Amino acid sequence: MTTVPAARPHATHEVLNQVPPLAGYDVADDPALLEAAGREGAGWDAGRLHELGLLAGAADTQEHARLANEHPPVLRTHDARGHRIDEVEFHPSWHVLLGTAVGHGLHAAPWADARPGAHVARAAAFYVWSQAEAGHGCPVSMTYAVVPALRHAPDLAQQFEPLLTAAAYDPGLRPPAGKAGLLAGMAMTEKQGGSDVRAGTTRAEPAGPGAGGPHLITGHKWFCSAPMSDLFLVLAQAPDGLTCFLLPRVLPDGSRNAMRLQRLKDKLGNRSNASAEVEFDGALAWPVGAAGRGVPTIIEMVSATRLDCVLGSAAGMRRGVVAAAYYTAHRQAFGKDLIAWPLMGSVLADLSLESEAATTLAIRLAGAAGRAGRGDAAEAALLRAALPAAKHWVCKRAPLHAAEALECLGGNGYVEESGMPRLYRDSPLNSIWEGSGNVTALDLLRALRRQPDTADALAAELALAAGADRRLDAAARRLETSLAGLAGAAGPDAEYAARRLAGQITLALQAALLVRHAPAAVADAFCASRLGGGEGAAPGGPGVPFGTLPDGTAVGEILDRARLVPR
Ligand SMILES: Cc1cc2nc3c(=O)[nH]c(=O)nc-3n(C[C@H](O)[C@H](O)[C@H](O)COP(=O)(O)OP(=O)(O)OC[C@H]3O[C@@H](n4cnc5c(N)ncnc54)[C@H](O)[C@@H]3O)c2cc1C
Question: What is the torsional sign of CA 313, 315, 316, 322?
Fold first, then answer.
């Protein structure tokens, strides 16, 4: 018999060069965010921002995010005895995430807070917390956005605003007036179209005498996210035209309103949030705003959610570049940390520039929205162009950014456990909802054509950085020429300009903010790579892949400045 050799240790089980989890860090340790929030009047909230940042970066929050996405919501149309209940069951982790957001007032608290900068503080906190998990940001944003629209019905606002702004998460279907806090959603999009909401077929008939009282709503909506919310703004064709209504899930007498959830969408992005198809079968709803003025009324909600789309995309970019930098700082190839290889450094610096520019502009817009809400006409004019432009451009840059950030993790970035696939899958969403790419670009054109003070407000904002960078000065002149050309444009050309202008305006605004406020290395590299024209500049500007920064870029300074690798 031959001798059996002694068992050898399993050398294959030794794990080398894998990166420890990115957890236990302060998501709010983000210089671009902190500086922008301070400039826009929310420096007083820095303490809370860091508190929320630590919570967002905590391992157990990440675990809640994973669980909420791996256990998607389930629709329960009927109870065991066959009664319709139309409820959606969420994983407990969803409630933890949403409860934290509401507990910190991210949904609607600034509407009840007279302090200057309250909306900026909320925007910064939303940006920080949505890096923990994006899906539950949907009901948070919609609740924030419903308040200005609801104010078109002062009686309803008086009744519900205190509950919408209360920092109390009170899930479950009960009469709204008896709850500690409320969440709100919206139902505009129908099967035959979401961009052209005037073509909606849902009908509203007065439930009694007089046009100002409750109506019975009959029809369907093809997308209605966060269907367990307490209140919804709904568009419906009333006798006097398309009108906005407030529709509660539960009626004051405790009975369920006739809002039937048909099915939940099987979506590309996050799996944590539910988006339903719904039918209203004579559901009771109350008018908000004047009869026939449904679009101008609900547009107030749309513009607040558009701001959150920009904030959400900027947050996704920051999450992506931090994950990429952390990973490459802890993984070696060819004898060095990946981040130390020049080309990886250039990719990360380019991702960081995009992220810083998006964050800086998003918080500037939040400041403008807060001031416009307090009657500042110049800021309102700036927003008319800057918001659709940024909604278009920043949200469109997000998927490219997420794809490149993911690739920094190599094959691990393609695996769900890294969290990067979730970031990537979610990244196109902000561009689609609340006005898809073409629609926001066309909104921008309309604003520029209809209200001349819009272009003046843009020029005034850019003039604040005039003379500081020759590439920015040239970009501002090109933009002026493009805007002047709008008046004479006809036929298809009049619309072809829309996306170009959205890009031109956003890049010029971002560059102007960076030139004024960011370190020289950041501003210089942004202007050189995004505005073109310099020696060794990337040939195609921002259309080319990331990692094509011009020769001589101060990569190390850009990376250090962004504090990408958590301390
Ligand atoms: C995850 C998710 C959640 C959502 N949640 C909600 C919700 O809670 N409530 C709600 O009401 N809706 C919701 N939506 C719907 C969303 O707002 C719509 O999908 C969006 O407004 C586009 O409408 P549509 O899908 O009907 O596309 P369409 O209107 O059919 O548009 C299709 C494409 O054509 C483009 N287009 C349209 N008009 C023009 C034009 N004149 N010129 C050039 N291009 C044009 C659009 O930009 C788009 O790219 C949600 C969507 C998603 C994906």
Answer: positive
What residue has token string 């209140």? 231
Q: Do the strands 203-206 and 215-225 form a parallel or antiparallel pair, or are they unpaired? A: antiparallel
Phi, psi of 280 (to 5 degrees): -105, 125
The residue to mutate among 186, 201, 221, 223, having the most atoms of ligand 1 within 8 angstroms of its beta carbon, is 223
How is 17-33 classified by DSSP, letter by letter?
SPPPP--S--TT--HHH
Residue 328 identity: T
What are the φ/ψ torsions at residue 241 (nearest 5 degrees)? Answer: 115, 180
Residue 536 pLDDT: 42
Residue 167 alpha carbon to ligand 1 centre in Å: 31
What phi and psi values does residue 172 have, to the nearest 5 degrees? 110, 150
Cβ 146 under 6 angstroms from ligand 1: no
Q: What's the DSSP call for residue 261?
A: E
CA distances from 58 to 19, 27, 54 (A): 17, 9, 6
In angstroms, rounded to a whole number, what is the distance separating the alpha carbons of residues 125 and 430? 18
DSSP per-residue string spanning 311-355: HHHHHHHHHHHHHHHHHHHH-EETTEEGGGSHHHHHHHHHHHHHH
Cβ-contact 215, 287 below 8 angstroms: yes
Q: What span, in angstroms and rounded, lies between the C-alpha atoms of 36 and 514? A: 10
pLDDT in tens, 410-467: 999 999 999 999 999 999 999 999 999 999 999 999 999 999 899 999 999 999 999 9
For residue 2, pLDDT beyond 70: no
**How far out from the chain centre does Cα 466 lie?**
30
User: If 0-12 CB within 10 Å is exposed, 13-18 middle and 19+ buried, where does residue 506 land?
Assistant: buried
Distances (CA, A) of 317 to 191, 294, 311, 416: 32, 34, 10, 18
Q: Which of 432, 443, 445 to mutate to test the pocket of ligand 1 (most atoms within 8 A of CB)?
A: 432
The pLDDT score that the predictor gives to residue 540 is: 44
Does the pLDDT at position 146 exceed 80?
yes
Six-digit token pair at 470?
Answer: 């020759």
> What's the pTM value of the predicted model, to 2 decimals?
0.96
Which three-class secondary structure state does DSSP give residue 92?
helix
- Cβ-Cβ contacts under 8 Å for 189 (sequence gap 6 or more): 197, 221, 222, 223, 224
Q: Over the Cα atoms of the chain, what is R_g? A: 25
Q: From ligand 1's centre to the CA of 435, what distance in Å?
A: 6
498 within ligand 1 shell (Cβ under 6 A): no
